[in-house]
Write a structure and sequence with these properties.
The protein has about 350 residues and is α/β, with parallel strands linked by helices. About 50% of the residues lie in helices and about 15% in strands. The structure holds S-adenosylmethionine.
């Protein structure tokens, strides 16, 4: 469902001249937006920080939704469902996002002034900035690849990801989404308010500190004998290493033959903020909002083997491996992998 990158409408004109005129047109628009942006930013901060705390909603789930909103408006991934959802979510401000990004969105649409928001990195050329967008597209591709083959899809730590709504409507696949009770409650209420059909999805709220997610999944109707796709996107980094291993072993124990667990991992260096100051600032903000980056894998030397061996320790065999930033010659910081049960029968 990735959108086409914006086309160059100005063939034949030198690039620097085009950029100059685009910038000259963009600046007054941005200036006009400035007062609205201040009001919008206040509204966004209030909703994202205060309301999310009040409602007990995961702040990082809101951040992940923001990328999908941004991708929609910058034409890199059409996602009207996430936009409709954002408008009704009590912990996000559609107006705040528009007022912040509006000048750039209008400039891209009117006269092709593209910034890095309007570009998707080529596979292998992902930077820290372009990782979230490429990650979303990769998980879309994984769901598309398996949706007709799998009898069940399970999304633990689903947050405000609406990928299942995009790909599983009118399919014969059972879908289970799990997350912390408050986050999932707000998700379902927001879907209802936005009038987004979601009746074929089973939402399984879990109080992770006192309840077993696997037991709750089984009680919700999950069938251990059916082929399943597990999607574990951007969750493991928030858990302790022991909890990541335990969760993956439990997933492996629930996998019938032919099942796949798709997930992502960050490097130890990324988690610790060594890779960049911006990353360190993000990590501090997430920390203040009550979540923490905790788990990363040492990717400094042969990351593929390090991840394969970590997965083996969790009773899993890696079947697909995609490392970000590979063609840039930078130290590996992120990867998306697929795995199957070691004794896949
Ligand atoms: C960055 S969000 C990712 C959400 C979603 N997978 C996505 O890609 O949009 C992290 C999610 O992990 C969930 N989470 C946090 N702690 C968890 C835990 N201990 N066990 C399971 N999920 C947890 C949060 O509620 C949140 O929804």
């Amino acid at each position: 469902m990735a959108g086409e990158p914006p086309k160059n409408k100005h063939r034949g004109t030198p690039g620097f001249l085009i950029k100059f005129f685009q910038l000259a047109l963009y600046i007054p628009i941005q200036v006009a937006f400035f007062p609205i942006a201040i009001v919008g930013l206040i509204d966004a901060i209030f909703k994202e920080m205060r309301n999310s705390k009040k409602l007990g909603v995961s702040f990082t789930a809101i951040q992940a939704l923001q990328y999908r909103w941004i991708m929609h408006y910058f034409d890199t991934r059409p996602d009207p469902i996430s936009v409709a959802f954002t408008k009704e979510l009590p912990c996000e401000s559609h107006f705040g996002l528009w007022s912040t990004f509006g000048a750039l969105i209008i400039s891209q649409r009117l006269f092709g002034f593209t910034t890095r928001f309007g570009r998707v990195a080529e596979p292998g050329k992902e930077t820290l900035f372009s990782t979230p967008g490429r990650r979303v597209l990769m998980f879309d591709a994984i769901v598309e690849k398996y949706v007709d083959e799998m009898e069940q899809i399970v999304i633990p730590g689903a947050g405000f990801d609406l990928v299942a709504l995009h790909f599983t409507k009118a399919k014969n696949t059972k879908v289970f989404e799990l997350d912390q009770t408050e986050t999932l409650h707000v998700k379902v209420e927001t879907l209802k308010k936005a009038g987004i059909a979601h009746d074929w999805i089973t939402y399984v709220p879990v109080a992770y500190s006192t309840e077993s997610w696997a037991d709750k999944l089984l009680a919700a109707g999950f069938d251990k004998t059916e082929k399943t796709l597990f999607l574990w996107e951007s969750v493991s980094l928030f858990l302790e290493a022991g909890a990541v291993k335990k969760t993956l072993r439990e997933m492996a124990g629930l996998c019938a033959g032919g099942s796949i667990i798709a997930q992502d991992f960050y490097s130890k260096a990324f988690i610790s903020g060594e890779t960049s100051r911006t990353v360190k600032r993000s990590s501090r903000m997430i920390d203040r909002m009550g979540e923490q980056w905790r788990f990363g894998i040492d990717m400094s030397n042969d990351p593929e083997s390090a991840i394969a061996s970590f997965l083996e320790d969790c009773e899993l065999r890696m079947t697909e491996y995609c490392q970000f930033g590979e063609k840039l010659g930078i130290e590996p910081f992120y990867c998306v992998v697929e795995a199957e049960r070691l004794d896949n029968v």
